[in-house]
């Protein structure tokens, strides 16, 4: 491998593990304060991480009495991160199903200008639960409609940026969006317009379905991928590169997620995993697993091969991400795991789960990149800020010693995309 890795950090509030908010020494209210995000920002930048990414849904992601997560609007938290750092990128998830492309373009240009052109947005299509009616839908629009809207959304968003940069009228007429705005009424300050194209936010995509990959090929600079099997990941990355080439675009970087539990030794990492995992709400992982696959949990044989049980019982949960379902099922099949064994792995919620030493983690990262399965990784820590600090203390030195991470953190975020 000749190019250093691109590393993102998904700071998932308390952490990815469902028991993270109960971790020893943690304050469950700390994520509501600016100090939490300043600490995370400084730690990530010092560790050589290129960007902090925040996932989001339009509404509470889960019952906060059981598992609090995604409690803050991400742009608010990321503004604090940007103010605390010089080079660290900030990436926010935004749903095309619950926003207007013109209003969003104006808002994101302001964020990007404030950050010094270090901003990107992750295009998702989700709108579930109470948010369906909150945003004017009478029923769940369904995956096909959501992706059709997303494709047009990105086209309208891009056309508006082009109008601002060119100081021309904006015109877009489509099935979902239609607007005509005179150049004098575009509503973007000339000082921000003068920064284009540099200030234009980077576009990230995370859909794992064929239609999601096509959207990424047409519009994204990076893809946050849910991959658990190296060979499948390499095939999907090759497919994405082919789609991009057909459209005449550079291929986006592919950054698979890894749910990390790192210790200075294998034994320490396993003890840490057990400590946090045992704090998860009773039955939480099983309930999330069955919901993702549309399975009646009462019919599930925990000691049967996972591949067979998933095939036998899976329904069609239209709201569940296709990429995550495929990744989990593929891992169970590749390892010939029982359902019970796969449930331990499912603590990663669709991403690779790694429990072990820094050296072994870096070996796996190197192997995936050399196999053409990744350009870097988007890291999810079991707990925050504990897991982020462990990465900075134990993994960053190994990456730097092997030439896989820059020795300093003063390289601009956008240079890596």
Can you describe this structure?
The chain has helices at residues 34-46, 74-84, 101-115, 131-134, 143-166, 190-193, 210-219, 230-246, 266-277, 284-293, 306-313, 322-334, 339-345, 358-370, 386-401; strands at 6-10, 51-54, 89-95, 119-124, 170-173, 178-181, 202-205, 222-225, 253-262, 352-356, 376-381. The chain is an alpha/beta fold. An 8-stranded parallel β-barrel has the order 1-2-3-4-7-8-9-11, surrounded by 7 helices. It is globular.
How many distinct beta strands?
11
Gyration radius, rounded: 21 Å
Strand content: 5-15%
The SSE order reads: EHEHEHEHHEEHEHEHEHHHHHEHEH
| Average predicted local confidence, pLDDT | 88
- Count of DSSP-assigned helices: 15
Structural class: alpha/beta
- The shape is globular
Runs with pLDDT <50, length 5+?
none
How is the main sheet built? 8 strands, parallel, barrel
From the structure provided, what is the oligomeric state, counting identical versus distinct chains? single chain
Distance between the termini: 17 Å
Helix content bin: 40-55%
Present the secondary structure layout.
Blueprint: E1 6-10, H1 34-46, E2 51-54, H2 74-84, E3 89-95, H3 101-115, E4 119-124, H4 131-134, H5 143-166, E5 170-173, E6 178-181, H6 190-193, E7 202-205, H7 210-219, E8 222-225, H8 230-246, E9 253-262, H9 266-277, H10 284-293, H11 306-313, H12 322-334, H13 339-345, E10 352-356, H14 358-370, E11 376-381, H15 386-401
Parallel strand pairs: 1-2, 1-11, 2-3, 3-4, 4-7, 7-8, 8-9, 9-10, 9-11
Antiparallel strand pairs: 5-6
Provide the descriptors you would attach to this structure in a database record.
single chain; 417 residues; alpha/beta; eight-stranded parallel barrel; two-stranded antiparallel ribbon; 15 helices; 11 strands; 14% strand
């Amino acid at each position: 491998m000749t190019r250093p890795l691109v590393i993102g950090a998904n700071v998932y509030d308390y952490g990815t593990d469902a028991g993270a908010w109960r971790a020893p020494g943690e304050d469950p209210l700390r994520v509501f304060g600016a100090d939490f995000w300043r600490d995370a920002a400084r730690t990530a930048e010092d560790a050589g991480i290129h960007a902090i990414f925040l996932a989001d849904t339009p509404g509470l992601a889960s019952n906060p009495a059981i598992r609090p997560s995604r409690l803050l609007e991400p742009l608010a938290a990321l503004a604090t991160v940007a103010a605390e750092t010089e080079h660290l990128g900030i990436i926010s998830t935004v749903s095309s199903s619950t926003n207007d492309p013109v209003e969003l373009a104006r808002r994101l240009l302001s964020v990007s200008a404030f950050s010094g052109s270090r901003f990107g947005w992750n295009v998702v299509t989700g709108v579930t639960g109470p948010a369906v009616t909150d945003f004017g839908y009478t029923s769940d629009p369904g995956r096909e409609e959501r992706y059709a809207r997303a494709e047009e959304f990105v086209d309208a968003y891009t056309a508006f940026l082009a109008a601002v940069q060119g100081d021309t009228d904006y015109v877009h007429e489509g099935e979902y969006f239609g607007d005509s705005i005179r150049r004098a009424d575009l509503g973007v300050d000339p000082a921000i317009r003068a920064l284009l194209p540099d200030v234009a936010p980077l576009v990230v995509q995370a859909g794992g379905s064929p239609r999601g990959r096509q959207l990424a090929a047409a519009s994204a600079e990076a893809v946050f991928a849910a991959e658990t099997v190296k060979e499948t990941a390499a095939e999907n990355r090759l497919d994405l590169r082919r789609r991009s080439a057909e459209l005449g675009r550079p291929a986006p970087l592919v950054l698979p997620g890894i749910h990390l539990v790192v210790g200075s030794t294998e034994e320490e990492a396993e003890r840490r995993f057990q400590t946090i995992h045992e704090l998860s709400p009773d039955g939480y992982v099983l309930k999330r697993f069955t919901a993702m696959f549309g399975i009646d949990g009462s019919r599930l044989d925990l000691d049967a091969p996972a591949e067979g049980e998933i095939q036998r019982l899976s329904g069609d949960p239209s709201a569940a991400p296709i990429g995550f379902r495929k990744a989990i099922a593929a891992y169970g099949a590749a390892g010939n795991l029982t359902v019970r064994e796969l449930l331990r792995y499912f603590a990663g919620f669709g991403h690779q789960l790694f429990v072990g030493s820094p050296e072994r983690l870096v070996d796996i990262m190197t192997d995936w990149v050399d196999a053409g399965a990744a350009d870097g990784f988007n890291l999810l820590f079991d707990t925050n800020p504990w897991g982020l600090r462990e990465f900075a203390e134990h993994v960053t030195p190994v990456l730097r010693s092997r030439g896989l991470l820059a020795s300093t953190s003063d390289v601009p975020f956008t240079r890596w995309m």
